[in-house]
Amino acid sequence: MKILVASHSYIVDLNCEKLRALAHLKPGIEVTVVVPKTWKPGGVQNKIITTQYRNEGNFKIVPISNFSQNHQGLLTFGIDLISLLREFRPQIIQVEQGSKALAYTQMIVLNQLLKLKAKNIFFTWWNLPYELKFPVTFLEKYNLNHSDGIITGNQDGAKVIRQRGYQGPIQVMPQLGINQSLFTPQTQPELASQLGITSEDFVVGFVGRFVPEKGLLTLLQALLAIPNKPWKLLLLGRGYLQAELIKISTENNLKDRVIITESVPHNQVANYINLMNTLILPSETTYKFKTLTTVGWKEQFGHVLIEAMACKVPVIGSDSGEIPHVIGDAGLVFPEGNIAALANCLVQLIEKPDMAKSIGQKGHQKAMHKYTNQALAQQQFAFYQELVNS
């Protein structure tokens, strides 16, 4: 089976592990990944990235000239895409830029013009209802009408796609999996010593952006409600809410129990997760954000949850978006924004170490069964086979 996947996400080599696993599932599978030749992701990496061609046999990364260097929906590719499609002649074309992406429309049109007869698929994370105006509504309708299958990163995303009128096959699975050789249980005595963490401390951890919608203020207030418990808060990330977090902890004479670490490379994040007695993702749905085509945000998956689960770290999450589905019975879930409920979850894990250990083991089993790159590659290939054979 010849599979072509296009997305700006794969300019990061670590993000390609699932697709590499897909290429090695069985003989006869070839995976070509189309990435923009240049891309400016913004945020921490506020620079233009120039991608490189890679040939690993049946797995290739092919940079293609592109228009728009920092907008997913407006991304389109240059004329060199045509020669690649003519030479490779894929049976599957998957574009991971959402339902309204011009790059997906471009692939659909070229699929028809070049008579490739490939199955058209797109991936989307979006999980809130939305309204569109012309011409974007026409663009999305065209893309949906020419889709042979859709992959959504969450359950709500599948419901939204149905609401948009799509009646074809949908597979629910995240875009990226876990590297289980990196995210694995491993003691970190030296790092613990550097951060002033002792064996008596119950380390409550958070990894992500320091912004209100991630629920950090709720998390801090829940910890302030249980000052007599032996907790320390380990925050890994950055964001404009940092000053407020420091101010609140200082006013409550608990600043020495809050540890903030910034700028950790992704391949070192597992070391910090392995210091945690629990990882919390207290995300909160908001409707304050607005773009040209969408309003609001709620947690689309929570990848850090499965990374913690792979390390046998018990997880606690709010009921925002996909979090309850990711955790299932392999962790604790509380109503988003409910300080007392989160404090109760924390007290349970602090006072019941056997319960915490059991949750950690359940999470590990679920992560290894469902969320490794190999497991996701198998799910994705099974979906492709279903479409090709239909």
How would you describe this protein?
With 390 residues, the chain is of the alpha/beta class. 36% of the residues lie in helices and 22% in strands. It has helices spanning 17-23, 80-88, 102-113, 136-145, 155-163, 189-195, 216-224, 242-251, 269-273, 303-310, 323-327, 339-351, 353-371, 373-388; strands at 2-6, 30-36, 38-39, 49-50, 54-55, 59-64, 66-67, 76-77, 92-95, 119-124, 149-152, 170-172, 202-209, 231-238, 258-261, 278-281, 286-290, 295-297, 315-318, 332-334. The longest helix is centred in the last third of the chain and has 19 residues, at 353-371. The protein is globular, with a radius of gyration of 22 Å. The two termini are 15 Å apart.
CATH H-level superfamily of the largest domain: Glycogen Phosphorylase B
Inertia-based shape:
globular
- The appropriate CATH architecture of the largest domain is 3-Layer(aba) Sandwich
The main pleated sheet reads as: 8 strands, mixed
Give the low-pLDDT segments: none
Structural class of the helices, strands and pairings?
A: alpha/beta
Total count of strands: 20
Distance between the termini: 15 Å
Domain tally: 2
Strand content: 15-25%
Oligomer: single chain
